[in-house]
């Protein structure tokens, strides 16, 4: 229990450090990013573009990415959030400026579903289309950070969500590879 208390103190200190950042130029963009990420909208839009314009490998990446989001949402938003039962941060008490705020979700805080879905999609699609690996991971990182910046998650929620999402994204891509190994051949072969 002592270790968990220490981690909780560290998590709250990191949350306050982000709240104390004097970066008003980021307030509106990160608020918009955080809202836009609701219901995995960016990932499903990217999946649609890949399916429409990416050929066979793009369609495979789109299906793998969408499956990773589905699996991750099921695992994170059901048993993990119910088991975690961590309350959302007190933005007012922790000093998050109101101009950063987005609507506070009603679900429990731990782990971050936005971060989990973002990481799952980025890893799963990056495994199929390695050229998208870095841009997708960067986008997932921005979304994850936006959840702390807007005050709806502690950093620990985001880190654990992203880790779980990455693991489930990798498991999904491995499962897809096992089901259809020929679709994962080198880009020149498809």
Structural summary, described in words:
- This protein is mainly alpha-helical and 190 residues long.
- It has one domain (2-189): Vanadium-containing Chloroperoxidase, domain 1.
- It has helices at 2-19, 24-36, 41-53, 55-84, 91-94, 113-128, 133-149, 155-179.
- Helix 4 (55-84) packs across helix 8.
- The longest helix has 30 residues, at 55-84.
- It is globular, with a radius of gyration of 17 Å.
- 41% of the residues are buried.
Estimated radius of gyration? 17 Å
Count of helix runs: 8
- The CATH architecture designation is Up-down Bundle
Q: Could you give a short account of the major beta sheet?
A: none
Q: Into which percent range does the helicity of residues fall?
A: over 70%
Helix/strand structural class = mainly alpha
The portion of residues forming beta strands comes to: under 5%
C-alpha end-to-end distance: 52 Å
The CATH H-level homologous superfamily:
Phosphatidic acid phosphatase type 2/haloperoxidase
Mean pLDDT: 91
Instruction: Indicate the low-confidence ranges by residue numbers.
Output: none
- Identify the CATH class: Mainly Alpha
> Could you say how many structural domains there are in total?
1
Shape type: globular
């Amino acid at each position: 229990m002592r270790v968990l208390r220490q981690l909780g103190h560290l998590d709250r200190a990191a949350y306050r450090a982000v709240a104390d950042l004097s970066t008003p130029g980021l307030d509106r963009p990160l608020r918009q990013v955080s809202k836009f990420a609701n219901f995995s909208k960016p990932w499903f839009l990217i999946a649609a573009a890949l399916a429409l314009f990416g050929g066979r490998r793009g369609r495979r990446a789109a299906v793998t990415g969408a499956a990773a989001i589905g699996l991750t949402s099921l695992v994170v938003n059901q048993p993990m959030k119910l088991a975690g039962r961590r309350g959302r941060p007190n933005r007012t008490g922790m000093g998050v400026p109101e101009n950063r705020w987005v609507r506070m979700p009603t679900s429990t805080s731990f782990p971050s579903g936005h971060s989990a879905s973002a990481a799952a999609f980025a890893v799963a699609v990056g495994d199929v289309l390695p050229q998208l690996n870095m841009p997708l991971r960067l986008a997932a990182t921005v979304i994850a950070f936006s959840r702390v910046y807007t005050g709806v998650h502690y950093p620990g929620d985001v880190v654990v969500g992203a880790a779980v999402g990455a693991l489930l994204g990798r498991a999904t891509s491995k499962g897809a590879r096992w089901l259809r190994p020929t679709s994962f051949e080198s880009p020149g072969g498809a």
